[in-house]
Amino acid sequence: MGSIQEAVSITEERVKGVEENDTVYVAVGLNAEKNKKLLHWTTHKFSGNSICLLHIHQPDLVNSFSKAETNVFEYEPKDHATKAFQEHGSQTVHELLDKYILTLVPAGVQASKLLIEKDDIEKGIIEAIAQHNIRCLVMGAAADRHKMGVDSENTPGIVTAPVVLMLDSNTEAKQSEKIKSELIPDVLKYLDSSDMEETENGNSRCSLNAEWSFNSVIARTKLTDLLVHEDDEELQNWRAKEISCRKEVEVQLAREKQDVQEMKNQRDKIICELQMVQDQSSTLRNQMLESKCMVTELEEKIISAVDLLISFKEKRDKLRIEHANAVRKVEVLRKFGEVDTTSSYVVEFPAFSFMEINEATQDFDQSWKIGEGRYGSVYKGLLRNMPVAIKMLPSYGCQNQLEFQHQVEVLSRVRHPNLLTLIGSCAESKSLVYEYLNNGSLESHLACKDRTPLPWQIRISIATDICSALIFLQSSKPCIIHGNLKPSKVLLDANFVAKLGDLGIPSLVQHSMDSADTGTVVCNNSHKHLAYVDPECLVTGKFTPESDVYSFGIILLQLLTGRPLSGLVRDMKCALEMENLKTVLDFSAGEWPLHQTTQLAYLALRCCEKTWLNRPDLVSEIWSVLKPFRTICIDRRQELTSKKLQRAPSHFVCPIVQEVMEDPYIAADGFTYEEEAIRGWLDSGHNTSPMTNLKLEHTDLVPNYALHNAILEWQQL
Ligand SMILES: Nc1ncnc2c1ncn2[C@@H]1O[C@H](COP(=O)(O)OP(=O)(O)OP(=O)(O)O)[C@@H](O)[C@H]1O
């Protein structure tokens, strides 16, 4: 390939070879003045030929402008703006080319335009040559015309002479690459270099690509506009239009930017609010969980409260029933005159369950069994921490639990220091719960089974104890008959104080067997105890107060003689008739005071009279004989019980302070206490019995004058 100079000369030669029907392509740039002159030259040189205006439009100039502003336009609207800008540029070029065409038409030139969009002008021209089979292309001359050697004088009005490029469509066009690289470039680049030369005053072409930006576009446009015929009104208008357009775009961009910023702010605000809502939501969720837990807890509490309420209601109903029954019982008892209506209080009588009885006797363990009589077995037991004796009555008979409970409660109210205390009962199992006396029965002492024989003083004091109890029973209203008095029913406490047990049992059991018979006690004559039974009772079948006197007489004879029952009365009678009492007296009891003992022997025989009318009166005759013995007997009893506590009768001792009482008072539980002690107990907030631990019906205290006198009497002895 040759130099540019050679290419120009070749082109000159070929101008002449342009056919009339050939289209002459004129490469036009943006410089209107130059374009005008170039067109003028071309129409002059190629008159008769049709002319096509070729313009390489560079959209990338606008793109580079947008790329340079990337940090500003981060949002979609920039694409719209760029697009609008591009479209506007393309349209403007079209309009410009159309204006050129309009200038050519009056001169009879057939003109057209070819607009090719290409970022690179060289490539654009090469593409145009190849695609449109261009044979003749006219371009403005290079700025450095001195290199080209073109005579400018032949082309007046134009700074440099145009270049005519003649191309053979079959050969040269196909070798467009070669043309591009070696021949065409310098010529083509003129289009831009000339622009650049004028706008940037000779700066290198590189700046076009490297420093192209929105500002340079504006600057270039302005400079171009200034340099290219400022008086050209159309261009001025076009420039003004473009400037206003640009301003509009700028304003729109600024607005969009502001919008974007506002949207960003809104987004940040929404994110902030969202965060807050999320925080609130998690807090609410936690609160909901807590609430759920609380609800569950409360539900459980409500359920247990309801359960409690139900059980309280049941208890209340039960208590109401019990209260109604109690009222009914009181009414019944009042009717029969069995209750002392003058009494200001009612002693609470505990009713035990069968479970408790069962537990107390270790499931009725045989080792806990004390004995067995006609009316059932007796067990030792530990009930509510108290040692007790439990009598299991036979379950036969039609007596119902309520009747049983009534009768037992009546019996429990009969209290005396020489009567075994009935602590409570179990209607379910028909059992009676007594205080437990650990010194055995008189029967066992008289039999001397593993025991030291009782001294005569103790024997006589036992007789006085029995007499005291019988006087109490017979003086009760109504009169109470023991009906089964015998040594096994005389129990001894640690101080050898005698207490009568099983009071009213025959009556209770007989009621069970024959509830219709309520007034009398029927004698059961089928056993060995008959020796103690009033012979009249054996005939009539009915017990009387004198029946107990008869039994007492037999016991007294036993105490004096220690002999078996058989022939006991007869032997004593004989001994007295023989005035030889000593022959029958039990000297294992010590040296009996003979004179007083003879008195007792006569008294005992009188008690054993077959006819009740011949028997002595308990108070006026029996007690008067026994009373003088008390001093001697009590002293002896005290000797036997060394401890101070044991010397005093147990019922003289306050259960709380364990000392002989000075001011004995009866509490609602029926027990007698030292006044100061029981008041202290109640004042300290207790409302239960110190003995039974059961709730007291009231806290009233009644002075026990009888006991007080007895204590005084005992103390004076
Ligand atoms: N509260 C008690 N404390 C200590 N032992 C007692 C108590 N009650 C009864 N006993 C003992 O139990 C034994 C049996 O007594 P229970 O009254 O059942 O029969 P009994 O008196 O021998 O004959 P029956 O009752 O048939 O006339 C008594 O002999 C006595 O030793």
Q: Can you describe what's shown?
A:
- With 717 residues, the protein is α+β, with helices and mostly antiparallel strands.
- It has four domains: 4-229, no CATH class; 346-436, Phosphorylase Kinase, domain 1, CATH 3.30.200.20; 438-641, Transferase(Phosphotransferase), domain 1, CATH 1.10.510; 651-715, Zinc/RING finger domain, C3HC4 (zinc finger) (Herpes Virus-1, 2-Layer Sandwich).
- It is built from 24 helices and 15 strands.
- The protein has helices at residues 4-15, 32-45, 59-68, 77-104, 121-132, 145-148, 176-200, 206-210, 214-227, 233-335, 354-360, 401-412, 442-446, 456-475, 505-513, 535-540, 545-561, 568-577, 594-607, 618-626, 630-640, 644-647, 675-683, 705-716; strands at 23-27, 50-57, 111-117, 136-139, 163-166, 369-373, 376-383, 386-392, 422-426, 431-435, 490-492, 498-500, 664-666, 672-674, 702-703.
- The strands form four sheets. A five-stranded mixed beta sheet has the order 3-2-1-4-5, with helices on both faces. Strands 6-7-8-10-9 form a five-stranded antiparallel beta sheet, sandwiched between helices.
- Helix 3 runs antiparallel to helix 4, helix 14 (456-475) packs across helix 21 (630-640) and helix 18 packs across helix 19 (594-607).
- The longest helix is centred in the middle third of the chain and has 103 residues, at 233-335.
- Residues 364-630 form the Protein kinase domain.
- ATP binds at residue 391.
- One of its GO terms (biological process) is protein ubiquitination.
- GO terms for molecular function: ATP binding; protein tyrosine kinase activity; ubiquitin protein ligase activity.
